[in-house]
Specification:
The complex is a heterodimer of chains A (about 525) and B (about 270). Chain A contains 24 helices and no strands. By secondary structure, chain A is mostly helical. Chain A has 2 domains: about 260 residues, no CATH class; about 240 residues, no CATH class. In chain A, helix 3 runs antiparallel to helix 9, helix 16 packs parallel to helix 21 and helix 21 runs parallel beside helix 24. The two termini of chain A are about 45 Å apart. Chain B has about 270 residues and is of the alpha/beta class. Chain B folds into 2 domains: about 140 residues, Rossmann fold; about 60 residues, no CATH class. In chain B, about 35% of the residues lie in helices and about 25% in strands. Chain B has a 6-stranded mixed beta sheet, sandwiched between helices. In chain B, helix 4 packs parallel to helix 6. Classes of the chains: A mainly alpha (about 525), B alpha/beta (about 270). Chains A and B meet through helix 13, helix 18 and helix 24 of A and helix 3 and helix 4 of B.
């Protein structure tokens, strides 16, 4: 039976390749890219065996192994949907013994490029650890346990994730979680590749990892090499125990999946009862539109993912700001934040998709529609601009620039809203439909998208020129300019928003049916 | 399914008519719409008498949806006019739209809202006050059997439930004219009966219903008047009996619309043929 499953996986792989040229190309690229990486890593591991330092191989193997385990358990979530072959639920209708299936599915996970690469890397760690017969034995047993841990964890995570992701709400949450992970992982990887890792960091990291479930299996060989038999055996015992626990969990999970195939999706997401924002904001068309927009910003990954990015991205300027002491970067944070928030609003009607008909059918007035939509962004601006304005001086930018940055940031946000009021009544471009992945792009719409975005960007910066000019003057040392920016920025921004709203409302009144026709056409 | 007791009289039916109303609820004159080379609706004239239950039938692509969209202010016609209870839809859209309730076909809803929120949203967009919206929303949800699902997201609703929640959105402001595009498509018999009961009550109390459908039997059963549309033109219109002219609606429809109904070939489909 186990052999059947492995053969099935091989068939699936081969047929997948036969189906399209793209799959073959993808496979070849995977082999070259991943293969190159594996060969490099293997060479490194073998080289470790050749050099004299006894402690170094242990540390490297522990870190490498821990990364492997973490990768096997995290990648399926981040790249979820890549490989649903041999999903346990598909076997629910077959009469296969659950134990057999559990073992078979674990083994099939090793068939395929990631599996082969991992096996090669494990072999590499065995070579690296082969200082003595005992150490080789420990490395072999540890490597095997580590390998099984990888696969079991990945199986458990995918099965559990599949259960969670089967509900739509779960998918939304996972999407945001994955993004956050990327945002967090970025700086870590950047930091590692930037300064390299010195020996002390490596050793201490390895020491910590060796006592976490990630590193147990990989630490034994190094311990034995250094003569620490009891530590090595403890590590092996812990690793073996982990494998046993994971096996039990995996089998339980499999049994529950097989016996209640539909249990996961049955709970059809009741949201909290009541009206939410609709009960709290004013009972006017504008209040209702604000409540709708706010609700969507929380619930719809097409809004909340970019919103999180918009909030966090300007903080990236802290890296040059602190790293190389760039004052401009620190002063730029509130401006970047304000621009992203204001400008980001320019395609709001596009996100409604054809649901926009409800506004058209209701005869909503333009001012309500224009201003109501700004509510979530406005709220974001109210929090982000002051925070980023204060962060700059707190991390070393001159305090005398505070009025200038605040005034200019407010101007940028208000001008962004003003431009959005007009453009989102004139021309909208295609965006992912509700329920689609927020990162998909619509084929054939790149030209319009770039055009509208560029026009909006230029308009926002142009409108903000007076405030920006004063801010530059203040930076160059003109004392009164900072205070002038503080006054002039918000005032001119306010005027722009007023004009933008009037103009946008008028356009909305005349063009709403055409806008809807546009939205229907790009569906 | 009992219709009468569960129907929310104040929410669904318009208030008893006291002032004199024009006799034509929906008047279309020379309505035309082109999409590129194709003419979807071609100088279409239609009069829907007030208080009627008007069925619009036609083959796929006949221009039913386009016509209804232009009549309700969702799609701007290339030429021609649409009057709702005497108000020009494209001259005074706000006044006209306040009289119309729409159930469109093939357009999305704000489906990340709960059913309760969506109907409330529709009411508030119409400028109604909170108290009234809350009362009518509760009544509508109860009448349509959606009270249990009111806190679920609309995206999790079945097709029938989605039609019903859209109908609730169309009814919340007590319109005088209901324009429904394929209201019974993909709706189970129980929900269909509920919807029908509400619509019949609405028409009985002086409201006007215009609906489009493919299902001739259904139109024949519930409509008082019908129009047959093909290739963007009205081929026949009037009371149901006038249009039927003694035959069944389906036969008349096939006569007017044309198209072969004789099945030729496919002999191998007959089980006796091998």
């Amino acid at each position: 039976m186990v052999a059947h499953l492995v053969r099935l996986k091989l068939h699936l792989l081969r047929n997948g390749l036969r189906r399209s040229v793209a799959a073959v190309v993808g496979m070849v690229i995977g082999v070259i890219y991943g293969g190159g990486f594996v060969v490099l890593a293997l060479a490194g591991l073998v080289a470790l065996r050749a050099q004299g330092d006894l402690e170094l191989p242990g540390s490297v193997v522990v870190v490498t192994g821990s990364v492997l385990v973490a990768g096997w358990s995290l990648l399926p979530i981040i790249l979820f949907g890549v490989d649903p072959t041999l999903d346990p639920t598909r076997f629910a209708t077959f009469a296969v013994r659950e134990r057999t299936l559990a073992v078979g599915l674990v083994l099939t996970a090793l068939v395929g490029l990631p599996g082969v690469a991992t096996i090669l890397l494990v072999l590499g760690t065995v070579v690296a650890g082969s200082r003595s017969v005992a150490a080789t034995l420990a490395a072999l047993v540890g490597g095997l346990l580590g390998l099984v841990t990888c696969v079991l964890l990945s199986r458990i995570v995918t099965a559990a994730a599949a259960a969670v992701l089967a509900t739509r709400r779960g998918r939304d949450v996972a999407g945001v979680g994955g993004l956050l992970l990327f945002i967090v992982a970025g700086p870590i990887i950047g930091g590692l590749s930037d300064g390299g890792i010195d020996r002390a960091t490596l050793d201490s990291t390895a020491l910590v990892l060796a006592w976490t479930p990630l590193g147990w299996a990989w630490a034994a060989a190094g311990d034995v090499t250094l003569g620490e038999w009891s530590t090595g055996l403890t590590h092996l015992a812990l690793a073996a125990a982990l494998v046993l626990v994971l096996l039990v969990v995996w089998e339980r999970l499999l049994v529950s999946v097989l016996r209640n195939p539909r249990s996961a999706s049955a709970d059809g997401g009741k949201v909290s009862a009541g009206l939410g924002l609709f009960g709290r904001l004013p009972a006017t068309p504008m209040g209702a539109i604000a409540a709708r927009a706010g609700t969507y910003w929380v619930r719809d990954p097409r809004f909340n993912v970019p919103a999180i990015m918009t909030i966090l991205l300007p903080a990236g300027l802290l890296i040059p700001g602190l790293g190389s002491g760039s004052q401009l970067a620190l002063l730029g944070m509130p401006l970047a934040s304000a621009y992203l928030i204001g400008w980001g609003q320019h395609n709001d009607v596009g996100y409604d998709s054809t649901a926009f008909w409800l506004h058209v059918a209701s005869g909503v007035d333009g001012v309500s529609d224009r201003l109501g939509r700004l509510f979530p962004s406005g709220l974001m601006a109210v929090f982000c601009i002051p925070v980023y304005c204060l962060l700059g001086p707190l991390f070393g930018a001159p305090w005398r620039m505070l009025p200038a940055t605040f005034g200019t940031a407010v101007a940028l946000a208000l001008n962004g809203f003003a431009v959005a009021c007009v453009t989102s009544a004139v021309k909208q471009y295609a965006v992912p439909a509700p329920g689609e992945n927020p990162f998909t792009s619509r084929p054939g719409s790149a030209g319009v998208t770039l055009g509208v975005q560029a026009v909006c960007g230029v308009a926002v910066w142009t409108l903000s020129l007076p405030a920006l000019g004063l801010a530059v003057a203040a930076y160059l040392g003109v004392g009164w300019a900072a205070w002038a920016a503080l006054v002039l920025g918000p005032v001119l921004g306010g005027v722009a928003l007023l004009v933008g709203t009037r103009l946008g409302a008028d356009l909305f009144r005349r063009r709403q049916a055409l806008l809807l026709q546009d939205l229907v056409a790009m569906r | 399914m009992q219709d009468a007791p569960t129907t929310p009289e104040p929410a669904a039916g318009p208030a008893p008519v006291t002032t004199r109303q024009p006799e034509i609820a929906l008047g279309l004159r020379g309505l035309t719409k082109r999409f590129g080379q194709t003419t979807a609706v071609d100088h279409l004239d239609l009069d829907v008498p007030r208080g009627s239950f008007y069925g619009l039938v036609g083959p796929n692509g006949a221009g039913k949806t386009t016509t209804l969209s232009m009549a309700t202010g969702l799609l701007r016609p290339d030429s021609g006019t649409a009057h709702v209870l005497g108000v020009d839809v494209w001259d005074d859209p706000v006044a006209a739209k306040s009289q119309i309730g729409i159930l469109p076909d093939g357009l999305r809803l704000f489906d990340r809202l709960t059913g309760h929120q969506l109907v409330t949203y529709a009411g508030l967009l119409r400028g109604m006050d909170r108290q009234l919206v809350a009362e009518r929303t509760a009544e509508l949800l109860a009448a349509l059997g959606l009270t249990d699902a009111q806190d679920k997201l609309v995206i999790d609703y079945s097709a029938g439930m989605t039609k019903k929640i859209t109908l609730a959105c169309a009814l919340i402001h007590a319109p005088r004219l209901l324009v429904l595009d394929e209201p019974f498509e993909a709706v189970d018999p129980v929900s269909a009966r509920t919807i029908r009961g509400i619509l019949e009550d609405f028409a009985a109390s002086g409201g006007t219903v215009v609906l489009s459908s493919h299902v001739m039997d259904l139109v024949e059963r519930i409509c008082t008047d019908v129009a047959i549309i093909a290739a963007g033109v009205v081929r026949a219109s009037g009371t149901l009996d006038d249009v039927r002219a003694g035959a069944s609606l389906e036969d008349r429809f096939l006569d007017l619309v044309g198209g072969s109904t004789n099945v030729e070939g496919l002999a191998w489909l007959r089980t006796s043929s091998d």
